[in-house]
Amino acid sequence: MTPLVEMIDIEKHFGGIHAVNGVSLDLHPGEVVGVLGHNGAGKSCLMRILSGAMRASAGEIRVGGEKVEFHSPHDARSFGIETIYQTLALADHLDAPANLFLGRELRTRWGNLDDKRMMEEARKVLARLNPNFRNLSDAVSRLSGGQRQVIAIARAVYFNAKVLIMDEPTAALGPAETAMVGKLIKQLRQEGVGIFLISHDMHDVFDLCDRIVIMNRGNSVGSYRIDEVSKDDVLSLIIKGSLPEDWTQRNRERLQ
After folding, report:
1. Percentage helix, strand, coil, to 5, in the chain?
2. What is the CA 95 to chain-centroid distance, rounded?
3. What domains are defined for the chain?
């Protein structure tokens, strides 16, 4: 099966600093791939390149097997790549429909904002993700962290995201809202959306991810199916850049 997206030998240099050093990864439909590493490991830089927010110094991006070039987030979105940043990029003083369509507002045939249609469309997509969402007319500053996350996800879903980049989606949430966001991620995976998940939360990683890619000092130090590694293995890769010495023996025994 052709991957939704491929990043091949991606490099990003800032002067003499190699923030990303020849990293390759891919993503298939209905797959969640965790992108892990300490702060400064290069994972966010790599995802910013895929989102169109940053240009690579070298390397190639392919979408559906075809080489593409992104000069802006708008270019990435035109290929179905949407990003949900940790800050969510929501306007606190606006309500859910206004945030959902911010910068991509629906208009009447006379060119005016079509507030009625935006409210109807927002209600439908939010109900699809969370049937209990009722606060469409409230400013998002009055909503919980989980409700705000639902709006950000709904924005990507409405505009037919094929690839979703999620940056620490549960970092500021309590247990109940973390579970809700996890349920949404699993729902999107079942619908065929591919998701890159940047996270430091090992529980989320092992609950949600099919594969993981670990970065250390700008390099990819491993790509594994989630059932091939333990939490201690992942932490070793993140901290030391290598697996524990007993990993090969443990996996040989597991496969026997």
Report:
1. 40, 25, 35
2. 23
3. 5-91+161-255 (3.40.50.300)
Q: pLDDT tens digits for the chain (256 residues)?
A: 889 999 999 999 998 889 999 999 999 999 999 999 998 899 999 999 999 999 999 999 999 999 999 999 999 999 999 998 877 778 999 999 999 999 999 999 999 999 999 999 999 999 888 888 888 999 999 998 888 888 988 998 899 899 999 998 888 788 888 888 899 999 999 999 999 999 988 999 999 999 999 999 999 999 999 999 999 999 999 998 888 877 666 665 655 4
Which tokens hold the place of 62?
């392919």
Query: Residue 222: left if φ>0, alpha if ψ -120 to 50, beta else—which one?
Result: left
C-alpha torsion sign, points 91, 94, 98, 104? negative
**pTM for the model:** 0.91
CA–CA gap between residue 224 and residue 8 (Å, rounded)? 17
The three-class DSSP label of residue 175 is helix
The maximal CA–CA distance of the chain, rounded, in angstroms, is 69
The residue among 150, 144, 138, 143 whose CA lies nearest residue 98 is 138
